[in-house]
Amino acid sequence: MYRYTWRTGVLEVVMILTALVFIFPVVLLFNIAFKAPGDQSSTLALPKHPTFQNFVDAWHQGALGGGLINSAIVTILTIVFLVVFASSAAYPLSRLRSRWSTVSYFAFLVGLLLPMQLALLPLYQTMRDIHLLGSLSGVILANVGQSMPFTIFLYAGFMRALPHDFEEAAALDGASAFRAFWSVVFPLMRPITGTVIILNAVFTWNDFLQPLLYLSGSGNKTITVAVYGFVGQYGAQWNLIFAGIIISIVPILIAYFVLQRYIVQGFAGGLKG
Q1: Rg (CA), the chain
Q2: pLDDT per residue over 199-239, tens digit each?
Q3: What pLDDT digit, counting tens, does each position of 115-133 carry?
Q4: Is 0.85 surpassed by the pTM of this model?
Q5: Which class is domain 56-272?
Q6: What DSSP line would sit under 193-256, residue for residue?
Q7: CB 216 within 8 Å of CB 127
Q8: CA 152, CA 148: separation in Å to the nearest integer?
Q9: What are the extents of the domains in the chain?
Q10: 231 — phi, psi (to 5°)?
Protein backbone atom coordinates (compact mmCIF):
# COMPACT_ATOMS: atom_id res chain seq x y z
CA MET A 1 0.00 0.00 0.00
CA TYR A 2 1.19 3.51 -0.85
CA ARG A 3 1.24 6.13 1.89
CA TYR A 4 -0.63 9.37 1.29
CA THR A 5 2.04 12.09 1.37
CA TRP A 6 2.17 15.78 0.57
CA ARG A 7 3.42 14.89 -2.92
CA THR A 8 0.27 12.84 -3.49
CA GLY A 9 -1.83 15.81 -2.39
CA VAL A 10 0.02 18.12 -4.81
CA LEU A 11 -0.51 15.67 -7.67
CA GLU A 12 -4.22 15.47 -6.88
CA VAL A 13 -4.52 19.26 -6.90
CA VAL A 14 -2.68 19.45 -10.23
CA MET A 15 -4.95 16.79 -11.76
CA ILE A 16 -8.09 18.55 -10.49
CA LEU A 17 -6.92 21.89 -11.93
CA THR A 18 -6.05 20.23 -15.23
CA ALA A 19 -9.49 18.60 -15.36
CA LEU A 20 -11.14 21.97 -14.72
CA VAL A 21 -9.18 23.54 -17.58
CA PHE A 22 -10.48 20.89 -19.98
CA ILE A 23 -14.03 20.87 -18.58
CA PHE A 24 -14.49 24.66 -18.69
CA PRO A 25 -14.89 24.95 -22.52
CA VAL A 26 -17.37 22.07 -22.50
CA VAL A 27 -19.45 23.72 -19.76
CA LEU A 28 -19.34 27.00 -21.67
CA LEU A 29 -20.42 25.21 -24.86
CA PHE A 30 -23.52 23.69 -23.27
CA ASN A 31 -24.24 26.86 -21.27
CA ILE A 32 -24.56 29.06 -24.37
CA ALA A 33 -26.27 26.38 -26.46
CA PHE A 34 -29.18 26.14 -24.02
CA LYS A 35 -29.64 29.89 -23.48
CA ALA A 36 -32.68 31.60 -24.94
CA PRO A 37 -31.90 34.03 -27.81
CA GLY A 38 -32.93 37.03 -25.73
CA ASP A 39 -30.88 36.07 -22.68
CA GLN A 40 -28.33 38.88 -22.18
CA SER A 41 -26.74 37.48 -19.05
CA SER A 42 -23.05 36.65 -18.81
CA THR A 43 -21.80 33.68 -20.80
CA LEU A 44 -20.60 32.20 -17.51
CA ALA A 45 -24.04 32.48 -15.88
CA LEU A 46 -26.37 29.50 -16.04
CA PRO A 47 -29.35 29.85 -18.42
CA LYS A 48 -32.36 31.42 -16.72
CA HIS A 49 -34.76 29.51 -18.95
CA PRO A 50 -32.97 26.58 -20.66
CA THR A 51 -34.39 25.81 -24.08
CA PHE A 52 -33.94 23.29 -26.88
CA GLN A 53 -35.18 25.80 -29.45
CA ASN A 54 -31.62 26.68 -30.43
CA PHE A 55 -31.07 23.10 -31.60
CA VAL A 56 -34.30 23.14 -33.61
CA ASP A 57 -33.44 26.50 -35.21
CA ALA A 58 -29.87 25.44 -35.95
CA TRP A 59 -31.07 22.20 -37.54
CA HIS A 60 -33.53 23.93 -39.87
CA GLN A 61 -31.76 27.22 -40.60
CA GLY A 62 -28.35 25.67 -41.17
CA ALA A 63 -29.59 22.58 -43.03
CA LEU A 64 -27.50 20.49 -40.65
CA GLY A 65 -29.17 17.28 -41.75
CA GLY A 66 -27.61 17.53 -45.20
CA GLY A 67 -24.31 18.55 -43.63
CA LEU A 68 -24.30 15.46 -41.42
CA ILE A 69 -25.02 13.22 -44.40
CA ASN A 70 -22.25 14.79 -46.48
CA SER A 71 -19.78 14.56 -43.59
CA ALA A 72 -20.73 10.90 -43.07
CA ILE A 73 -20.19 10.15 -46.77
CA VAL A 74 -16.81 11.90 -46.83
CA THR A 75 -15.67 10.32 -43.57
CA ILE A 76 -16.78 6.75 -44.36
CA LEU A 77 -15.35 6.68 -47.89
CA THR A 78 -12.11 8.30 -46.73
CA ILE A 79 -11.72 5.65 -44.03
CA VAL A 80 -12.49 2.80 -46.45
CA PHE A 81 -9.91 3.99 -48.98
CA LEU A 82 -7.31 4.60 -46.29
CA VAL A 83 -7.73 1.18 -44.70
CA VAL A 84 -7.58 -0.64 -48.05
CA PHE A 85 -4.75 1.25 -49.71
CA ALA A 86 -2.62 2.09 -46.65
CA SER A 87 -2.67 -1.45 -45.28
CA SER A 88 -1.90 -2.86 -48.74
CA ALA A 89 1.03 -0.46 -49.13
CA ALA A 90 2.34 -1.03 -45.60
CA TYR A 91 2.44 -4.83 -46.03
CA PRO A 92 5.32 -4.99 -48.55
CA LEU A 93 7.01 -1.98 -46.94
CA SER A 94 7.16 -3.82 -43.60
CA ARG A 95 7.94 -7.29 -44.94
CA LEU A 96 10.46 -6.62 -47.71
CA ARG A 97 14.01 -5.78 -46.61
CA SER A 98 15.26 -4.38 -49.91
CA ARG A 99 16.77 -0.95 -50.32
CA TRP A 100 13.87 0.25 -52.46
CA SER A 101 11.39 -0.77 -49.79
CA THR A 102 13.23 1.31 -47.20
CA VAL A 103 13.49 4.29 -49.55
CA SER A 104 9.79 4.07 -50.39
CA TYR A 105 8.84 3.88 -46.71
CA PHE A 106 10.81 7.00 -45.83
CA ALA A 107 9.42 8.75 -48.90
CA PHE A 108 5.96 8.23 -47.47
CA LEU A 109 7.12 9.53 -44.09
CA VAL A 110 8.28 12.77 -45.71
CA GLY A 111 4.57 13.54 -46.04
CA LEU A 112 4.39 13.76 -42.24
CA LEU A 113 6.91 16.59 -42.24
CA LEU A 114 5.41 18.77 -44.95
CA PRO A 115 2.62 21.13 -43.84
CA MET A 116 -0.64 20.73 -45.72
CA GLN A 117 -0.86 24.46 -46.39
CA LEU A 118 2.03 24.21 -48.88
CA ALA A 119 -0.13 22.15 -51.22
CA LEU A 120 -3.40 24.09 -50.95
CA LEU A 121 -2.93 26.23 -54.07
CA PRO A 122 -1.59 23.45 -56.34
CA LEU A 123 -4.30 21.07 -55.11
CA TYR A 124 -7.01 23.65 -55.73
CA GLN A 125 -5.77 24.20 -59.29
CA THR A 126 -5.61 20.43 -59.84
CA MET A 127 -9.14 19.94 -58.53
CA ARG A 128 -10.33 22.71 -60.82
CA ASP A 129 -8.61 21.19 -63.87
CA ILE A 130 -10.11 17.73 -63.26
CA HIS A 131 -13.55 19.24 -62.50
CA LEU A 132 -13.79 18.06 -58.89
CA LEU A 133 -14.49 21.46 -57.31
CA GLY A 134 -17.86 21.45 -55.61
CA SER A 135 -17.87 17.65 -55.47
CA LEU A 136 -17.50 15.45 -52.41
CA SER A 137 -15.10 13.31 -54.46
CA GLY A 138 -12.53 16.11 -54.42
CA VAL A 139 -12.68 16.40 -50.62
CA ILE A 140 -12.38 12.62 -50.25
CA LEU A 141 -9.39 12.49 -52.60
CA ALA A 142 -7.64 15.31 -50.73
CA ASN A 143 -8.30 13.72 -47.33
CA VAL A 144 -7.01 10.32 -48.44
CA GLY A 145 -3.81 11.83 -49.81
CA GLN A 146 -3.24 13.94 -46.72
CA SER A 147 -3.79 11.09 -44.23
CA MET A 148 -2.01 8.35 -46.19
CA PRO A 149 1.54 8.90 -44.76
CA PHE A 150 0.44 8.76 -41.12
CA THR A 151 -1.80 5.75 -41.75
CA ILE A 152 1.00 3.84 -43.50
CA PHE A 153 3.28 4.69 -40.58
CA LEU A 154 0.80 3.16 -38.12
CA TYR A 155 0.18 0.03 -40.18
CA ALA A 156 3.85 -0.60 -40.96
CA GLY A 157 4.87 -0.23 -37.32
CA PHE A 158 2.20 -2.70 -36.23
CA MET A 159 3.00 -5.22 -38.97
CA ARG A 160 6.67 -5.34 -38.01
CA ALA A 161 5.61 -6.73 -34.63
CA LEU A 162 3.54 -9.54 -36.20
CA PRO A 163 5.23 -12.95 -36.56
CA HIS A 164 5.73 -14.41 -40.03
CA ASP A 165 4.62 -17.91 -39.02
CA PHE A 166 1.02 -17.61 -40.19
CA GLU A 167 2.01 -16.19 -43.57
CA GLU A 168 4.57 -18.93 -44.09
CA ALA A 169 1.98 -21.57 -43.26
CA ALA A 170 -0.43 -20.00 -45.75
CA ALA A 171 2.32 -19.96 -48.40
CA LEU A 172 2.99 -23.66 -47.82
CA ASP A 173 -0.71 -24.31 -48.42
CA GLY A 174 -0.40 -22.58 -51.80
CA ALA A 175 -1.81 -19.15 -50.90
CA SER A 176 -0.51 -16.19 -52.88
CA ALA A 177 0.89 -13.10 -51.17
CA PHE A 178 -2.38 -11.30 -51.89
CA ARG A 179 -4.47 -14.11 -50.36
CA ALA A 180 -2.13 -14.45 -47.39
CA PHE A 181 -2.41 -10.76 -46.62
CA TRP A 182 -6.19 -10.45 -46.76
CA SER A 183 -6.99 -13.85 -45.24
CA VAL A 184 -4.25 -14.12 -42.60
CA VAL A 185 -2.47 -10.83 -41.89
CA PHE A 186 -5.30 -8.32 -42.16
CA PRO A 187 -7.56 -10.02 -39.56
CA LEU A 188 -4.64 -9.87 -37.11
CA MET A 189 -4.46 -6.09 -37.53
CA ARG A 190 -7.83 -5.41 -35.96
CA PRO A 191 -6.41 -3.26 -33.11
CA ILE A 192 -4.42 -0.95 -35.40
CA THR A 193 -7.30 -0.81 -37.86
CA GLY A 194 -9.52 0.43 -35.05
CA THR A 195 -6.91 3.07 -34.25
CA VAL A 196 -6.69 4.10 -37.90
CA ILE A 197 -10.46 4.34 -38.18
CA ILE A 198 -11.08 6.48 -35.12
CA LEU A 199 -8.09 8.83 -35.54
CA ASN A 200 -8.79 9.50 -39.21
CA ALA A 201 -12.54 9.66 -38.63
CA VAL A 202 -12.13 12.39 -35.99
CA PHE A 203 -9.73 14.34 -38.21
CA THR A 204 -11.88 14.01 -41.34
CA TRP A 205 -15.16 14.76 -39.58
CA ASN A 206 -13.78 17.90 -37.92
CA ASP A 207 -11.92 19.13 -41.01
CA PHE A 208 -13.06 22.61 -41.98
CA LEU A 209 -10.47 24.06 -44.35
CA GLN A 210 -10.61 21.55 -47.19
CA PRO A 211 -14.43 21.31 -47.43
CA LEU A 212 -14.60 25.11 -47.32
CA LEU A 213 -11.97 25.36 -50.05
CA TYR A 214 -13.21 22.67 -52.44
CA LEU A 215 -16.97 22.91 -51.84
CA SER A 216 -17.25 26.70 -51.76
CA GLY A 217 -20.06 27.99 -53.95
CA SER A 218 -21.73 24.60 -54.31
CA GLY A 219 -24.78 23.13 -52.66
CA ASN A 220 -22.66 20.51 -50.93
CA LYS A 221 -21.66 21.34 -47.38
CA THR A 222 -20.14 19.26 -44.64
CA ILE A 223 -21.32 19.78 -41.08
CA THR A 224 -18.41 22.06 -40.18
CA VAL A 225 -19.09 24.36 -43.14
CA ALA A 226 -22.82 24.31 -42.39
CA VAL A 227 -22.19 25.46 -38.80
CA TYR A 228 -19.88 28.18 -40.11
CA GLY A 229 -22.87 29.55 -42.03
CA PHE A 230 -24.15 31.10 -38.79
CA VAL A 231 -21.16 33.47 -38.82
CA GLY A 232 -22.11 36.64 -40.68
CA GLN A 233 -20.12 39.63 -41.87
CA TYR A 234 -21.19 41.84 -38.97
CA GLY A 235 -21.98 39.33 -36.26
CA ALA A 236 -22.49 35.73 -35.27
CA GLN A 237 -25.43 33.79 -33.88
CA TRP A 238 -23.52 32.21 -31.04
CA ASN A 239 -26.44 30.32 -29.54
CA LEU A 240 -27.03 28.60 -32.90
CA ILE A 241 -23.32 28.07 -33.48
CA PHE A 242 -22.86 26.31 -30.16
CA ALA A 243 -26.02 24.27 -30.64
CA GLY A 244 -24.77 23.27 -34.09
CA ILE A 245 -21.40 22.28 -32.66
CA ILE A 246 -23.07 19.98 -30.14
CA ILE A 247 -25.14 18.39 -32.92
CA SER A 248 -22.01 17.92 -35.03
CA ILE A 249 -19.95 16.22 -32.32
CA VAL A 250 -22.57 13.65 -31.26
CA PRO A 251 -21.98 11.13 -34.11
CA ILE A 252 -18.18 11.20 -33.91
CA LEU A 253 -18.32 11.08 -30.09
CA ILE A 254 -20.40 7.90 -30.24
CA ALA A 255 -17.94 6.36 -32.70
CA TYR A 256 -15.04 7.32 -30.43
CA PHE A 257 -16.54 5.66 -27.35
CA VAL A 258 -17.29 2.51 -29.34
CA LEU A 259 -13.73 2.20 -30.73
CA GLN A 260 -11.61 3.87 -28.05
CA ARG A 261 -10.21 0.62 -26.65
CA TYR A 262 -8.59 -0.10 -30.01
CA ILE A 263 -6.54 3.11 -29.86
CA VAL A 264 -4.40 2.00 -26.92
CA GLN A 265 -4.09 -1.52 -28.32
CA GLY A 266 -3.07 -0.25 -31.73
CA PHE A 267 -0.48 2.21 -30.45
CA ALA A 268 0.92 -0.37 -28.04
CA GLY A 269 1.31 -2.85 -30.88
CA GLY A 270 2.89 -0.24 -33.10
CA LEU A 271 5.37 0.85 -30.46
CA LYS A 272 6.56 -2.73 -30.00
CA GLY A 273 7.70 -2.70 -33.61
Answers
A1: 23
A2: 899 899 999 988 988 888 777 889 999 888 888 655 677 88
A3: 777 788 888 888 888 888 8
A4: no
A5: mainly alpha
A6: HHHHHHHHHHHHHH--HHHHHHSTTSS---HHHHHHTTB-SS-B-HHHHHHHHHHHHHHHHHHH
A7: no
A8: 6
A9: 1-51, 56-272
A10: -95, 115
